[in-house]
Amino acid sequence: MHYGNLRDPNAEYTMRDLSSETMGLTADRGERRDVEITDVQTVIVDGNYPWTLVRVYTDAGPVGNGEAYWGGALPEIIERLTPFVVGENPLDIDRLYEHMVQKMSGEGSIAGKDIAAISGIELALHDVAGKILDVPAYQLLGGKYRDSVRTYCDCHTEDEADPEACADEAERVVEELGYDALKFDLDVPSGHEKDRANRHLRRPEIEHKAEIVRQVTERVGDRADAAFDCHWAFASGSAKRLARELEQYDVWWLEDPVPPENHDVQREVTQSTGTPIAAGENVYRTHGQRRLITEEGVDIVAPDCPKVGGMRETAKIATLADMFYLPVAMHNVSSPIGTMASAHVGAAIPNALAVEYHSYELGWWEDLVEEDDLIVDGYMDVPEEPGLGLTLDLDAVEAHLAEGQELFDAA
Fold first, then answer.
1. Structural domains in the chain?
2. 128-140 pLDDT, tens digit each
3. How far is residue 330's CA from residue 266's CA, in Å, rounded to a whole number?
4. Angle at Cα 401 formed by Cα 396 and Cα 402, nearest 5°?
5. What is the mean pLDDT of the chain?
6. Positive or negative CA dihedral for 19, 20, 21, 25?
7. Sequence-ordered alpha helix ranges (H) in 295-393
8. Nearest CA-CA partner of 344 in 319, 301, 312, 368
């Protein structure tokens, strides 16, 4: 049998010719893909949160770095998961992810620490797979829409209940640090509380929170977007009253105004106001996010990549959100590893709005990796290097280990 060359109909190649020309490339590809996981290890770094760093080792040499949200029992859960992935091919990310979920199904693997632990391994699999295939992690998600990803700075002051102090810090972060996106907390004491346990907001409390919003948004003006976080603190009626009070201000979004369990209430709050409502960091996997999205329970979806399922699961959540024309603002309190993983997802999805940065007051955050200038003027350039494009500085990791932790073994 002969096959003609489409560019030159007079040229002919036999199947034997084609095989001999490509045999070397095929063999090389086969060798590169014949890889096994040899170990998974974790350490907890004592940052402004307990960062659980995860490493996946392979018999081919490359090591993948990931991160799970956060601390607690995660190392023990990851140790439980390790036998399920050792000996497996790290390039089979989807299969290994489902394999881990199934193996932990009897222990509640639809949410919580189990999914966070699986997420940490999944991030490391993207890093090591990118290194093996010599492509950046975003390429494993289908390529990129943008070269850099916007970050928003989660801001704090010594007196977070003081509206003027919040406005001062907002202005400083914009002018001195170069951010054009910010977030402040609203679940702060106002001095007017009678009983915080009942989640009810009295009128003076609403006025206090509105004053924080007014002063911050007026101070930054059109130089920056400003979001505000409630941390699931308020009752349904109080959340609706607060959201309506804030409609007069330029609020980027109001985050998690009610507890996360009841999607019906979340939807009612969102649909009762013109203030944009964000939620999603405490809702796990695409299945968990489904009702929030399909029933129009949010205006902005806010998954946490190292927590709710990993990079591919976050991309799947974004795909579902995009069907309903919703943007994605990724919650993030991670070290540079988890933050960069979120940035790769942000590069690969069309509806990325921003990625949170929560460590601007921590002077050594960037020291954990060898690369510099990860965030410049509020934007993260997405590396073209293989995998996540970051190299852990093991000396810095060791210097900031949480109490009782030991550095990774060389596996």
1. 37-135 (3.30.390.10), 140-393 (3.20.20.120)
2. 999 999 999 999 9
3. 18
4. 155
5. 92
6. positive
7. 305-308, 311-323, 336-348
8. 312
